[in-house]
Amino acid sequence: MTEELKDGTVKANELQDHGSLEMESNEIEKSKVGIMRAVVEAEDPTAKEMDDFMIRRFLRARDQDIEKASNLFLKYLRWRRAFVPNGSISTSEIPNELAHDKLFMQGLDKKGCPIVVCFGGRHRQNNIEELRRFVVYSLDKICSRMPGGQEKFVCIGDLEGWRYSNSDIRGYLAALSILQDCFPERLGKLFIVHAPYVFMTIWKVVYPFIDSKTKKKIIFVENKNLRSTLLNDIDESQLPDAYGGQLPLIPIQDA
């Protein structure tokens, strides 16, 4: 057998083995989803209303640990009933946050993930409960606009013009807690762009509260590489016009 044939056979076997392992992993995860569903439904019958994809996201967020994932999921269900008793947050409940005009949604990346743009320099410290409602309103809106079969979104966090007056550690941590504990495995990637040097002082305070999975999704982009970095993940036709693309930004409430 020639070296070329040997190499081809080895690669084919490796691909076959990889495919078999992936199938086995998927079957194990599917089994765990079923077990977790039984556990959470026994504790909280309203869990029956949630689909397997949601249960799977909580399971993945806790590295396939059924007990930890179940506890987080049950905590989420209790929180949701208490914090969003009407099932959704209305714009009339978040007028001050919407007035900041800081969150937009437009386009899809190359994987089909919705693109969200947040202008951190427009954020102002406000009533913490209204901020929490705004975060839930926004994440609900983003998730409802995801194409079929898609579970994640991509965010461009634009810090141009950010100053200490925009600093709101309490608000940042509140938003982070909701994202990680109540909407796990929803963030696909976060590009932080136009980050001023003064922001890094606040970043050092917030960073320890970010879980390891989320940290891997955060990318600081240098100004000189901004457009090329975004175009690696987003086609120009889907890139917001604020970054040289073709789509105008749409406020989150109008998306």
Automatic annotation (TrEMBL):
Highest taxon above the source species: Eukaryota
Pfam families xref list: CRAL_TRIO (PF00650)
Residue ranges occupied by any CRAL-TRIO domain in the UniProt entry: 91-251
Region span, Disordered: 1-23
Name of the protein this chain belongs to: CRAL-TRIO domain-containing protein
Source organism (scientific name): Carya illinoinensis (Pecan)
